[in-house]
Amino acid sequence: MMDVTYAGSRGTRISTAQQLNATPAQYLSTSPVRDQRTIDFLTASFPNPFFRLAPTYSSNISRANLLRPYPHFGDMSVNEPVGYSWYHSLQVRGEKRFASGFSLQTAYTFSKFMQATEFLNPTDPTPYRVISDVDRPHVFTFSGLWELPFGRGRRFGRSMPSVANALAGGWQLNGAIIRQAGPPLAFGNIIFNGNLKDIPLPKSQRSVDRWFNIDAGFERNSARQLANNIRAFPLRLSGVRGDGQATWNFSLLKNMRIHERLSAEFRVESYNTMNHPSFDVPNRTPTSSAFGAITNTTSEPRGFQFALKLKF
């Protein structure tokens, strides 16, 4: 059996956090490089006119804070139903059933998930359209079921005694393999002088110490980083992704008829049987000495679970 499906969805009125007390955009720099003049202007310190209003206020305040709509408060955000998202996918599924209780299933999904639920700059009027953080363009699953040919009514041991059948008969083996692409990477408000297509590395060149090309054009000098400016660099890059998922899960179960109205199921399950690690996203701070390196994993180690279920 082969099944091909298109699936799509549209999300509207998604709650999105909007900043109400940001420094107005007209005072921020639009320079693609560090604008020290604007930084000095906005970070200049003055006696705080609100100092006596609350014991937590400091005696001095920066010009950037004085220029806020409500300078006597800090950050103020409100959730507004202005976000939206959209999803498109091609889903292909196949199944083959063989004789003697053996079947295979496979499925592949090719998709794209976009969203506008975040603001690139606090002063932007509308959310920023970008690839979703949960986008996984490729998902492949392969699973199988095999009713082991031992016990009464099976190929081996059709007339097996009750005691032997209770031990050797009624076993079923299941397995599933899951492979999917990794998440798109998000960088901060960085300076990049290069081609975005040069950032990802071929799979043969990637390692936990160098997941992407850190020499593609990133400004890594801490003295040249941006501050007090309008951000132009995207929130996330669809073409630069973290590690994908590769998981093998297996289960072995046995169905037992104890009485006419009582049966039991014993199950042994193994998760991440191959103990394959899924790596966390790499460091994306250009000024860090660990830039481009992976230091954590997100997958659980190999695990087993035993269960007994009575049905009556």
Walk me through what this model shows:
This protein is mainly β and 312 residues long. It is 6% helix and 40% strand. The chain has two domains: 2-18 and 87-311, no CATH class; 21-75, no CATH class. The chain has helices at residues 36-43, 63-66, 162-168; strands at 2-19, 45-47, 60-62, 77-98, 102-116, 130-131, 138-147, 171-180, 184-186, 236-241, 245-259, 262-271, 303-311. The strands form three sheets. Strands 1, 4, 5, 6, 7, 8, 11, 12 and 13 form a nine-stranded antiparallel sheet that branches. Strands 2-3 form a two-stranded antiparallel sheet. A hairpin with a 2-residue loop joins β11 (245-259) and β12. The radius of gyration is 29 Å and the shape is elongated.
Helices and strands in order:
Elements: E1 2-19, H1 36-43, E2 45-47, E3 60-62, H2 63-66, E4 77-98, E5 102-116, E6 130-131, E7 138-147, H3 162-168, E8 171-180, E9 184-186, E10 236-241, E11 245-259, E12 262-271, E13 303-311
Antiparallel strand pairs: 1-4, 2-3, 4-5, 5-6, 5-7, 7-8, 8-11, 9-10, 11-12, 12-13
